[in-house]
Amino acid sequence: MLLDYAFPACDCQDAQFQALSAIRSLGTRTEFRYKLLEEGVLEPLMLTCHRRDVDFELKRQATAALCNLTLTSAKSSTIARSGVISALISVAKDSIDVDINCQVLAVAALANLVEAGGANVSKRLVDEGCDILIVKLAASSQHEEFRIEISRLIALLSCHQEVHERLITETCLAEIIRFAGLNEDEKCRR
Fold it and tell me: What pTM was computed for the model?
């Protein structure tokens, strides 16, 4: 029933916002994450993230819900295979200069997937172009929380030898070195 409100056939943005907010909130609890995933919440959330005509508040709620759901370590490989990576990359790219909070949530969700899913998920992220996204976004943002999440994603990706060759490319390595030298931002350097 909640899914019906979150993704209605009509254009009821207020009801949709409230339902997405409920899904986001329920996703903060481990036992509810599994139930939401079983109920098929991923696909409609991804569709909301991919759509360019969606109000940014709705997109932010959907991205926050995905960020919470990606904390489900036992299902991280399944989540990664579902298409959520491309949805999160889409949000991170499309939210530039529109909603930094969406960008932060999208990159945090990608980092959550890597942290929970290990080498296979890291390889999938890189195969879907996440390393290129990191370089573009890292070079363009001065927002501290965003840079922290980008740094976290880079650190987690670098834990897996399967992606080292992609991370050592000239442009990606330059951004990693630049982040390591940010004297004013100790969290990003770590």
Answer: 0.85
